[in-house]
Specification:
The protein has 4 helices and 4 strands; from the N terminus they run ααβαββαβ. By secondary structure, it is an alpha+beta fold. The chain has 2 domains: 42 residues, Arc Repressor Mutant, subunit A (Orthogonal Bundle), CATH 1.10.10; 80 residues, 2-Layer Sandwich (Alpha-Beta Plaits), CATH 3.30.70.
Length: 158
């Protein structure tokens, strides 16, 4: 329910769930404390002054992956960092107000992070879909899509 409208008061959530307001308050406090949920407003960065929404793929010396990921995550332009498998080791997403800003970031600041061996940067020129409402999988939905249908390539029933 919070994914549909994160502004709903606890009393409304309690009424709709058929539980006490204190139960909702405690559960929500636990979910926030454990970083299961975050409540906030999501804006389209390209509509509030950022000109460049960039994905940065970073190749790193293996022994430096954790440290580099933490350092990259501290950079204010970066809003997402993940450690990956495949052709690159770290995936980051950042926002920039201009090409000059992105150039300065990559060539002067990111390039100074010890352990980075190379990067590849792509710019998002238009957001087609961005949806943070996630289906919560049930225990019997492993290997199935969000509506319980088997995902392509997932194993059949045992």
């Amino acid at each position: 329910m919070l994914q549909v409208d994160g502004r709903q008061p606890n009393t409304e959530l309690a009424r709709r769930l058929g539980v006490a307001e204190g139960t909702v308050r405690r559960r929500l406090a636990r979910l926030r404390r454990e970083n299961v949920v975050q409540i906030g407003a999501w804006v389209d960065p390209l509509k509030i002054g950022y000109q460049i929404y960039a994905h940065i793929e970073i190749r790193v010396r293996l022994a430096a992956i954790e440290r580099v990921a933490r350092e990259v995550a501290r950079l204010p332009e970066i809003f997402f960092v993940g450690i990956c498998t495949g052709a690159f080791d770290i995936f980051a997403a950042g926002l920039f107000v201009s090409n000059q800003h992105m150039d300065e970031f990559i060539t002067r600041r990111l390039s100074r992070v010890p352990g980075i061996e190379g990067t590849s940067t792509s710019s998002v020129i238009r957001v087609v879909k961005r949806d943070y409402r996630l289906q919560v999988p049930s225990a019997n939905s492993v290997g199935r899509g969000p509506r319980g249908r088997r995902s392509p390539g997932s194993p059949g029933p045992d």
